UniProtKB/TrEMBL annotation:
This is MYND-type domain-containing protein. InterPro entries: Mss51-like_C, Znf_MYND. PANTHER family: GH20023P. It comes from Harpegnathos saltator. Keywords: Metal-binding, Zinc, Zinc-finger. Pfam families: MSS51_C (PF20179), zf-MYND (PF01753). Residues 8-49 form the MYND-type domain. GO terms for molecular function: zinc ion binding.
Length: 287
């Protein structure tokens, strides 16, 4: 889960009407695309929302205070977050911390009233007075990067990228040489779909594939590929989070580069992982 003050918190839809946004009635920090999604989030949000309402001196939509710089603005957000945490009987969730630090505010002065949102990246806000400054600083490149990051976040939580296509993996084998990740991805994925433009899912999948490809590159550099033939390989990955777990299926690519390996076991270790065994459907070559 992640937080963006300009899109629906439940479905991550960007279709939030600026003229009549559906806000949380109490904290005024969270947006929704519909009353239904507002009610759907109520049980999860209610506890922290009541505390925010008690701690806040001024509701965001009435807060006309301006700040000298970004550091001053962030410091006030940290103080608010600390005050809420002291009254909450549990640790703040990652997206709840983002609610404070990434609250909707003007890009220049950080006031929170009568704001407009960039309708391309949905990640930048500005007041009427600073519209020209915002448009100058929020140029095409920055807007593109922020739009990409938002799309990557949405792709990750959608779960669509957790399945690396077996159709792609079947075309990978130990005879194909590559020197770097970019070369591998372009040759095996982008060119095969006849589109060299990177999508959000490509950045995520290339990240998933970087782990097994790095291990393979290391084994190759050490000249021990022949040593591990007909063997059982166990790889331990430490510090794994839920996003890393979604990319476990990408480790199948090792079996394509090391076809004589009989068994591949990936042991993942992370403080927030649920103990268990994860099994994936492999392509015909690997079964």
């Amino acid at each position: 889960q992640f937080f963006n003050p300009n899109i629906c918190h439940v479905c991550k839809s960007v279709n939030v009407d600026e003229s009549s946004p559906i806000l949380c009635d109490w904290c005024s920090l969270v947006y929704y695309c519909s009353i239904g999604h507002k009610m759907l989030h109520y049980l999860e949000h209610n506890e922290i929302c009541e505390i925010i309402w008690q701690v806040l001196e001024i509701k965001p939509q009435r807060d006309t205070r301006r700040y000298k710089n970004w550091q001053e603005w962030i410091e006030t957000r940290k103080q608010l977050m600390k005050a809420v945490q002291q009254n909450l009987n549990r640790p703040l969730k990652p997206y709840e911390k983002q609610m404070f630090l990434w609250s909707k505010s003007c890009y220049v002065c950080h006031q929170q009233t009568e704001l407009k949102t960039c309708q391309r990246c949905f990640s930048g806000n500005y007041c009427d007075e600073h519209e020209n400054v915002f448009c100058t600083k929020h140029d095409g490149y920055k807007c593109d990067q922020m739009m990409l990051m938002l799309n990557i976040d949405i792709e990750i939580i959608s779960g669509k990228t957790s399945n690396i296509s077996c159709g792609f993996l079947q075309l990978v084998d130990e005879k194909k040489c590559f020197e770097e990740m970019l070369e591998f991805y372009i040759e095996n994925i982008l060119k095969r779909r006849r589109d060299i433009d990177w999508l959000a899912k490509d950045y995520i999948r290339s990240d998933y594939l970087s782990g097994p490809l790095t291990v393979y590159h290391g084994l190759k550099k050490l000249n021990i590929l022949n040593v591990i033939e007909n063997s059982r390989i166990v790889i331990h990955i430490i510090g794994v989070n839920s996003v890393d777990k979604n990319g476990l299926c990408a480790w199948e690519v090792l079996l394509h580069f090391l076809p004589k390996v009989k068994h591949l076991v990936i042991e993942i270790i992370g403080p927030k992982l649920v103990p268990g065994n994860y099994k994936y459907n492999l392509c015909r070559k690997c079964k």
